[in-house]
Amino acid sequence: MDIIKTAQDLIRFKTETGNTEEIAKCLGYVKTLFENKNANVEVFERDNLAPVIMLSNTTEQDLDVAILGHLDVVPAEEHMFEPRIDNGKMYGRGTLDMKSFAAVALNSLEHVLDNSLNLKFAVILSTDEEKGSKGMHAFMEAHPDLNAKIVLDNDVGGDILKIINACKNPVFVKLIAKGLEAHGSTPWDGIDANEKLMQIWANIRKIYPYFSKDSGGAPQDTWIDTVHFAKIGGGSVANIICNEAEALLDFRLVETSSVEGLKDNLNKCMVDGVSYVIASESSTVVMKKDDPYIVDYKNFAEEILGQKIEFEQIGGATDSRSFAVRGSTVIMHSGTGEGMHAAGEYVEVASVLKIGEIQIKFLDKLSGQ
Questions:
Q1: 3-168+285-367 in CATH: which number?
Q2: Percent of the chain with pLDDT over 70
Q3: DSSP H stretches of helix in the chain
Q4: Res. 164 pLDDT band, cuts 50 70 90
């Protein structure tokens, strides 16, 4: 398989999360790649949730290796869905996050099938990872016996010389503020729901500090709980006191913090007229650096790259947590690029090909080839 061509083909599908028509076309394309490869293909769809596709060389649920990824992307301008390569970099939406590495996974599947590797192997691609992976959660619930000794996770893009050994728990909290309408000229006759949200936010910031590029940058230790104000909305007319407002907060918790502890903190921050709900929660993914599979993979990758690889901890979410909680060893390693979710998103082409090479040779090694 030509990995870069496959990546470019995938990028051309405008699979913004929720674009069901384009997602269906993209899944159709993926299926055509394996029409004559004797692959088992399952497209899981349920209750209007985003579909998940699993392609494998086995019908068994106890896998040796699974590769996880997603085919949906965040919104972008039209031109970003036409990939271009310039000076060794491929630009476009999904080049880094993460259609290039979905192509790598599909290439690995083709290699396993064509060479009849002695591995129970699957590639699993979700289509709503950018908005909480509800489809993936439903898929895992519908496959309670599905597991894998090793999960290769390429959805941690940024630096091929870093293996991620820990991801934080993303917890989204919805604040709901109730007020009382009044004319804007007589605020004492009303209760401003927006004002209440700002009071809550000030209280939250006493517990979870503010970090930004123009306010001192990152703390010395970034493995801490963080929160950002993801969305806020309240009021409809300028001269009416807002009687209802909502906000969505994005917390990222380390493994020593719990959702119960977060609730305790939020309870301390509340004022009359404001409540909250946990909109979604997950779990951390923390892998031991001395896990035998991870050590083996790291040594193997260093040999191929001719450079040392370091471990890193990140705040981003990953679908591989669905397997981590089932006991899988998750190896989080991807290629080099920048601009994830931004207008200048790119991936270094050479790093994509290197990840592809590492995966194939690692799979060969695991199968005893």
A1: 3.40.630.10
A2: 100
A3: 3-11, 20-32, 99-114, 134-142, 193-207, 259-269, 292-305, 321-324, 349-367
A4: very high
What pLDDT, on a 0 to 100 scale, did the predictor assign at position 283? 87
Q: What does DSSP say about strands 162-167 and 285-286: parallel, antiparallel, or unpaired?
A: antiparallel
Q: How far apart are CA 343 and CA 201, in angstroms?
A: 30
Residues of the chain with CATH 3.40.630.10: 3-168+285-367
Residue 281 and residue 132 in contact, taking contact as beta carbons nearer than 8 Å: no
Confidence of residue 291 (pLDDT cuts 50, 70, 90): very high
Residue range 311-325: mean pLDDT, rounded: 89
Instruction: List, edge to edge, every strand of the sheet that includes 89-91.
Output: 84-86, 89-91, 346-348, 337-338
Share the mean pLDDT of the chain: 95
Read off the tokens for 130.
């950018």
Spatial separation of the C-alpha atoms in residues 151 and 104, rounded to whole Å: 14
Evaluate whether 96 touches 338 at the Cβ level (below 8 Å).
Answer: yes
So what's the architecture of 169-280 in CATH? 2-Layer Sandwich (3.30)
Paired tokens of 344: 């200048």
What are the residue ranges of CATH 3.30.70.360 in the chain? Answer: 169-280
Q: How far is CA 302 from the centre of its chain?
A: 25
Cα gap 221→203, rounded to integer Å: 23
Residue 190's pLDDT is 97
Residue 183 has pLDDT above 90, yes or no: yes
The pTM of the whole model exceeds 0.85: yes
